[in-house]
Amino acid sequence: MDVNPVILKFVYAATVVSVIMGLCSYAVLAERKISSWIQGRVGPNRTSLPLIGGIPLIGKFLTRLGIYQPVPDGLKFLFKEDVVPAHVNKFYFIMAPVIALVPALTTVVVVPFGRFVTEAGEVIPLVLANVNVGLLFLFAISSLGVYGVVLAGWSSNSKYPFLGGIRASAQMISYELAMGVSVLPILIWVNAPGREGTLNLFDIAQAQSGFWFAMWMPVSAIIFLVCLFAETNRLPFDMAESETELVSGFHTEYSSFKFGLFFVGEYAHMVVGSCVFTLLFLGGWNPMPFVTLEALGFGEGILGAILSVGIFSGKMCGMMFFFMWIRWTLPRFRYDQVMKLGWKILLPLSIANLVVYTIFIFYLDTKL
Amino acid sequence: MPIVIKRRPLNFLEKLYLPEIARGLSTTFKKIWEKPVTLEYPEQRPTIPEGYRGVPTLVKDPEGREKCVSCQLCEFVCPPKAIRIKPGEIPENSEYAHVEKGPQEFEIDMLRCIYCGMCQEVCPEEAIWLQNQFSLSGYSREELVNNKEDLYELGGTLPDEHFKWRKKKEAAEHGSGH
Amino acid sequence: MTDVFFYIFATAALAGALGVVFSRNTVSGAMCLIGTFLSMASLFVLLEAYFLAVIQVLVYAGAVMVLFLFIIMLLDVKETAAKKASIYTWAASLIGFGILITGVFAISAAVSIKNKAPTMPEASGTSLKAFGYELFTTYLLPMQVTGFLLLIAMIGVIVLSKKVNTE
Ligand code: SF4
Ligand code: SF4
């Protein structure tokens, strides 16, 4: 095992990025399927690949499920004509999709997706980079993603994208604050005096072997969830896109591959957002509140690791489903409502929540 | 008098918004399990209601006689001038020689036709019918001009109650008027 | 390795800073500033002050600059043509340059840098917990004062932007 660690990191990174890309493309499929089920339609059900599609029964079934749909979807993004309108600022126009995608993929490195317990009882996190400031790193990098949207809107040099860009930046600022404040109670709990000080996502997930944080900090969870929707630009907060008002907002002028990058970026944000919510509030890889994998006897070795990854991915997929479910249920907010909700409701609420939990945790620590 | 609809002010739970979201979510969740209403088109076809106005066609009567007598009324009435008729004589030795005329050529340009049904309205012989054919496609303009054979093929045979020309012939043979 | 990275990021930071000063396009200027912030954050990482680095990105690149861009876009500032510098501009830039030179000279002449400590002292930003404790014990007063300053600025903005009721 004396492979050059730098090369090893590259391999890991490539693997994780391709997994995320795969997840994104299937998230797109899931989105299409779920939307069609909710609306009483069938959804993509025709694409079939040669050979695999021909397998009797299963092939037909998979075709009906639209399993192969991501392939032509991806090819379409690659091979459509890529139009760069004459009136755009070329440099930023081409940069914008990249800027939108890179932060989304970068944040993945600090997201732990499981744990491995050695025979000696040592717990090793399954994560690319186990940084101490993981949560802050995640917030910091994902907040850079908005530049992609803003620059796309600005460089397109036309009205609707411009409005989309402005909206995106305002929305970003408004919700980041409430989001940050809403997780503080968790951090206070995890870092209470006498405990190891950490902002590490892995440790936060491990700290939920008893109560999950969503259970005894429901207000935090709800605020965080709402902000997550806002930060990932998902309906009902897709102000930047809002196709009924702004054609399609910041990416109106984009086509083909560049549009595809934005598209993947949105879903990558969603994947990471689901992961973070699972880690912070839904107990990470703990199968049930008060029940850890160790308690079930699956603690050690490869099996435990695989189970932990499986449980984590299951929860994450559940969150993704929730994202889509919300999207096809709620109508879009009006822009002023979004601002009002952010500044006048969520922010005060999150601060009040913080104060209450600070006092509560202080009481728990001193009196008990 | 404008009608004023009083809006009930939202109660506390509704103002909280979250319970209402939950209600909406449960509605959509139930929808997921319902059977889709989609008609999967190329395999499943919709049932065409009676009186549907599809592609105009020419029909034959149950005896297999071409009903059109090429009076050209439809040609005149057709608003976008989609119909072209070249009238022709019916050969002497034909069984239907007593029918004055028949079309030699009959073309309907489906790129012009607006499916208005005027031709069907005006036809004295009930020879032209807009039937249930609704999907039509082709690779060239020429392909989309239906000529006489196409029209008869599309139209087929429709039932007839009158058998006007047979009666006319019988009447002429027996020397009695109507 | 670290040295190479230091030079790369230091150059990037300087280039970004120059870009802010010289670019005629305001959005380009803002992007250059973001580049500078990111390079600075990378320098902090090289110093193993991860917390500082992350906060730098989170606060400056992630929030403050978004606000900047928002305002630039809202005001829709067009590219400015080269203006003829007035006498004040010249005077101001001369004074500024003087201060810069003095600062650089003073720092490079400082004894503590010349006599480099044999072991690097642990940066207080390394451990998150240590950072927090320091902030709330040793540096409590400066922190409170800074907070108060920001509060004053905020109140000032609110007072200024509030429309005076003429009635
Ligand atoms: S289709 Fe009817 S209206 Fe048209 S020419 Fe023939 S008989 Fe006359
Ligand atoms: S349906 Fe109308 S447009 Fe079409 S051929 Fe008949 S009269 Fe002409």
Tag the structure with descriptive keywords.
heterotrimer; A: 368 residues; mainly alpha; 2 domains; 12 helices; 2 strands; 2% strand; globular; B: 178 residues; alpha+beta; Alpha-Beta Plaits; 3-stranded antiparallel β-sheet; two-stranded antiparallel sheet; 5 strands; 28% helix; elongated; binds iron/sulfur cluster
Can you tell me about this structure?
By secondary structure, chain A is mostly helical. Chain A has helices spanning 5-38, 58-65, 70-79, 90-106, 134-155, 159-190, 201-206, 213-216, 218-231, 256-281, 301-327, 335-367; strands at 115-117, 123-125. Chain A is built from twelve helices and two strands, in the order ααααββαααααααα. Chain B has six helices and five strands; from the N terminus they run ααβαββαββαα. Chain B has a three-stranded antiparallel sheet with strand order 2-3-5. Chain B has a two-stranded antiparallel ribbon with strand order 1-4. Chain B has a domain at 56-174: 2-Layer Sandwich (Alpha-Beta Plaits). Helix content of chain C is 75%, strand content 0%. In chain C, α1 (2-22) packs antiparallel against α2 and α2 (26-46) runs antiparallel to α3. Chain A binds chain C through residues 92, 131-133, 136-137, 139-141, 143-144, 146-147, 150-151, 153-154, 162, 165-166, 169-170, 172-173, 176, 191, 197-199, and chain C through 27, 31, 34, 50-51, 54-55, 57-58, 61-63, 66-67, 69-70, 73-74, 127-129, 132.
What's the SSE blueprint?
The complex is a heterotrimer of chains A (368), B (178) and C (167).
Chain A: H1 5-38, H2 58-65, H3 70-79, H4 90-106, E1 115-117, E2 123-125, H5 134-155, H6 159-190, H7 201-206, H8 213-216, H9 218-231, H10 256-281, H11 301-327, H12 335-367
Antiparallel strand pairs in A: 1-2
Helix pairs in contact in A: 1-10, 1-11, 3-10, 4-5, 4-10, 5-6, 6-9, 6-12, 9-12, 10-11
Chain B: H1 12-16, H2 18-32, E1 56-58, H3 73-77, E2 83-89, E3 101-109, H4 118-122, E4 128-130, E5 145-146, H5 148-155, H6 164-174
Antiparallel strand pairs in B: 1-4, 2-3, 3-5
Chain C: H1 2-22, H2 26-46, H3 50-75, H4 87-109, H5 111-114, H6 128-136, H7 140-161
The structure holds iron/sulfur cluster (2 copies).
In short:
The complex is a heterotrimer of chains A (about 375), B (about 180) and C (about 170). With about 180 residues, chain B is of the alpha+beta class.
